[in-house]
Amino acid sequence: MGTDYFSSGISKLKTASLLLIIGTLLSGIASMMAMMSAPSNIATSALGLIGALIALIGIFKLIPASSDLKAHDASRYGTASTLIKIGLLIGYILLLIGFLIIAAGAAALSLGLIMIGGMTTLISLIFLLIGYIGVLLLLFKLKEETNEGLFLAAAILMIIGVFIGILMFIGWILVFIACGKVLKSGISRPSAQPLAPPPPPPSS
């Protein structure tokens, strides 16, 4: 029996979703605190930063989760895994570079640097969109394999969540619950093994 990459991938996806839930919740609390007090309040800023970091860790946890699912069934999850890996890694690297260039341009009062940083940031958002599409595709494929409707519901909420942010948060809660249900079912799905070639015909 092959390694159960499926359970490993689902477990990592559950961890990623939990981190995203906690990070988003802390960031939301920090935003509400900022509305009720001075935005420069140290506690508010620290809470917002902690929430953002936890959410970022959760986002990057999606990469090993999708990689395990790809190892389980490359034909089903390969495209989603590739989109997530390329989109999130390149997207966040370019986003960081873009912010650094903009900051350097602002410090040097250089409009050229600011424009370059802005273009780099714009390109990073395109890659992040690619990664986001990969996450949605992963959820659709999980619904297809497990027949767990919460994966589909989460994907739909996340699509609408682009316009209504709270739905994105609810979507990750559904992913967490769905992963828990799949793991609790105890169904093991060993990785597909390539078929052995047929035996040679008997010699005459």
Q: Span between N and C termini?
A: 36 Å
Helix content, binned percent: over 70%
Global Rg: 21 Å
How many separate structural domains?
1
Largest sheet: none
Topology order in helix (H) and strand (E) letters: HHHHHH
- Mean pLDDT, nearest integer? 88
Query: Helix tally?
Result: 6
Q: How many extended strands?
A: 0
- The percentage of residues in β strands lies in under 5%
Overall geometry: globular
Low-confidence stretches: none
Helix/strand structural class:
mainly alpha
List the helices and strands and how they pair.
Layout: H1 5-36, H2 42-72, H3 74-108, H4 111-146, H5 149-160, H6 165-185
What's the short version?
This protein has 204 residues and is mainly alpha-helical. It contains 6 helices and no strands.
Keyword list:
0% strand; 204 residues; mainly alpha; 6 helices
Provide a descriptive summary of the structure in words:
The two termini are 36 Å apart. 82% of the residues lie in helices and 0% in strands. The radius of gyration is 21 Å and the shape is globular. With 204 residues, it is mostly helical. The protein has one domain (5-185).
